[in-house]
Amino acid sequence: MSERVSSLDTHWHTFYMRMALDQARLAAEVSEVPVGAVVVAGSGHILSLAHNAPRERQDPTAHAEILALRRAARAVKNYRLSRCALYVTLEPCLMCLGAMVHARLETLVFGAFDPKSGVTGGAVDLTSLPFLNHTLKVVGGVLAQESSRLLKSFFTERRRQCG
Question: b or e along 61-71 (b: 16 or more beta carbons within 10 Å of the residue's beta carbon)?
């Protein structure tokens, strides 16, 4: 359910996605799958930055999106993030989309599509299911090649080390 965006939106989407990519690189440095996320308030203020950390935290829910949403909610002292956008380098999984819906996130912007487990168009699009009590705007493919390259190089290196 991708939205059309203006050139001004494209500029800001690229700006914040570069921050998410920086977070993804931090994840790779500590052997986590390189996914990074940024939550931005409607004013443009950055509320939180995060990267994947399930191995480090021994927590299967420690995806970049979940950690960024938790930090943003604490920053605004409200679990509702209704005027916020989340930028993430990889299309979200089902768990992360569920958290975004519950947070009433306004916009999701992601980099690379995930044909295996992405739920906003990669494997399946679950954003407009009739029983969801909230829908969010979705913009996919922002800096997708850069996001994909980072993931591919990470998994190539991991296979080389394990092979």
Answer: ebbbbbbbbbe
Given the residues 32, 56, 65, 146, select the one marked as catalytic. Answer: 65
Compute the residue count for the chain. Answer: 163
Structure token pair of residue 143: 């800096």
Strands (E) in the chain, as ranges, are 36-41, 46-51, 84-90, 107-112, 137-139
The pLDDT tens digits of the residues spanning 53-106 come to 999 999 999 999 999 999 999 999 999 999 999 999 999 999 999 999 999 999
Q: How far is CA 35 from each of CA 63, 66, 80, 83, 128, rounded to the nearest angstrom? A: 8, 11, 23, 23, 24
Determine whether 157 is an active site residue: no
Query: Which among 46, 83, 90 is positioned nearest to 68, based on CA atoms?
Result: 46
CA distances from 64 to 4, 87, 99, 128, 132 (A): 25, 10, 12, 23, 23
Each residue of 124-163: pLDDT tens digit? 999 989 999 899 999 999 999 999 999 999 999 988 888 7
**Measured torsion, CA atoms of residues 52, 144, 109, 7, in degrees rounded to the nearest 10:** 150
